[in-house]
Amino acid sequence: MKQLDQLREFMRRDRVFDFVAEERFPFTSGVRPVRPGVVDISKGPILYIENMTVSFDGFKAINDLTLYINHGELRCIIGPNGAGKTTMMDCITGKTRPDSGTVFYGQTMDLTRMSEYEIAQVGIGRKFQKPTVFPHHTVFENLELALYTDKSVWPTLIAKLSGEQRDHIDEVLRIIGLIDQVHRRAGLLSHGQTQWLEIGMLLMQKPLLLLVDEPVAGMTHQESERTAELLTSLAEEHSVVVVEHDMDFVRSLARTVTVLHEGRVLAEGSMDQVQNDPKVIEVYLGETAH
Amino acid sequence: MPNKSLFARLFASNRGGSIFLGILAAFAIIVPVFNLAVPESSALHMSTYTVTLLGKYLTFALLAIALDLVWGYCGILSLGHGAFFALGGYAMGMYLMRQIGDRGVYGNPELPDFMVFLNWPELPWYWHGFDMFWFAMLMVMLAPGVLAFVFGWLAFRSRVTGVYLSIITQALTYALMLAFFRNEMGFGGNNGLTDFKDIMGYNLQQDSTRVALFLASAIALALAYLACHYIVTSRFGRVVIAIRDAEDRTRFTGYKTESYKVWIFTFSAVLSGIAGALYVPQVGIINPGEFSPLNSIELVVWVAVGGRGTLYGAALGAGLVNYAKTFFTGALPEVWLFALGALFIVVTIFLPKGIIGLIGKLKNKRRAEKAQAIGLNPNAETES
Predict the structure, then answer these.
(1) Which domain holds residue A7?
(2) What ipTM score was computed for the predicted complex, to two decimals?
């Protein structure tokens, strides 16, 4: 299996070998070598979705969608039900393959050709709509499992925590505010705590891009506020994409908003711009006003 | 909690397991003494029949631990684990057949009796090498291991899970049973392999050989338990439990879950094969009946009765259910299957965590009562 993967990696057509890019080949000099496994964000965007289409039994969940996310950006994506928000997340994380179009991570990694675990390993973390943690493990063990490290079978069998990794876990525990619950089973946490633990697990993976699906659904007001603070503090170092229904929450994040409708981008801009866009009012905000 | 020393992980912080290993060690000392050293006239003498029976239970316990590893920890309900047990048994049976030599009914030094009877001119290619003990032992592990690896690779890569996987494993063992029933397969057809004489030069009918096989079973069980416990308390084990509880989340956390499932399934199959290899010389026969789906289902009942996800619970369940089976099939043969069915229903409804779960529950209750008595808040989330 591994050899096959290696062979496939070797045969990839979108890759330029380092020796080709060296100066003794004058016609390619000036071309930066592509380093496999390293995200190339030198042009600004970390995620390029271009002309992506996904259909299920003839229904186009995503219809010719083009969207760029910049490095260090906090982007909110809103849209009515069935606008294709979750399908878009599925395509980025490898759960669903688009019918056409491209999804690139940095300038070199084609996400449509990578599997879920590979995408997670190169630094894309995903929080599900329904908070999902490992209920029978303690908070500590949940974070330990998410740790950024070699995750193949044999190293995992003999893995031991180093002091550095332990510090990383402590740091994340502090960020998500679960330090008092560290030895509690995750299945016993409250809804809000579960959401934070899941975000903490994403942070353990040292991701560059965080995809957060409805982080405040079912949260109390105070919990939402804390979550907004948490997500804002994460942007800049990470790129964060938030899909959310809760308008107050989106406004409190106060960043660029993209409105999806019927699988394509309807409007993009600040919250005020978007809210005053007649198209948006018609399809989305208009609906809620009835 | 991680980073404990190996000793602490295997014994000190593993109370249930230490008790289990202690009982096993006590058996391993008492049984040989009472069989070999106590004279037959004494009331304390243990018959060789009992020794063999206990040895058989131990191999079943080993098989149950192997199933618990994949079912209790990884959530893979295999209804075909009997197939791996039987394959290991056949590999051992082939070795024992070759050991008969020219002492068979037809006196052919090369061919086993059933081949002479079927007019086979020579040994089929896959029977070569089985006259060597080391080769047979290698096959005991390789045959079930390779089958499980290939099967698991195909099934888990295609993301077959839950009840569908259970049905395919059931079909696997059923297909193997039908194949082994055929005389052309060269494994003795429906009679299977039997009439064994000796193992590594020791007469299989002798008391000392029987005791040695019992001891080998006990040691294999203890080592397998320790290996499984090591696995489930490692980070690998935590990943496996994570796969059981939330496979998608595990995948998005960066683990290639199918690899984990394939490896734990293969390891479990190898353990099952070893159990089968220890079982065959003690009962003296291996036939396609061992592949029957009913056996695999019975195995699931043992694990459910003992308690999933504890390893020693599975061993306990195997011992208790088989003791009951020996008793019932002797005293009331027609009742046994009904009793087994009823047992499964009762355990599923009233004891979802099996006997070990019940013990844990009683203990928690007592602890809570005690805590209340001295005015403390009972700790509701303690786990056995």
Answers:
(1) 1-36
(2) 0.86
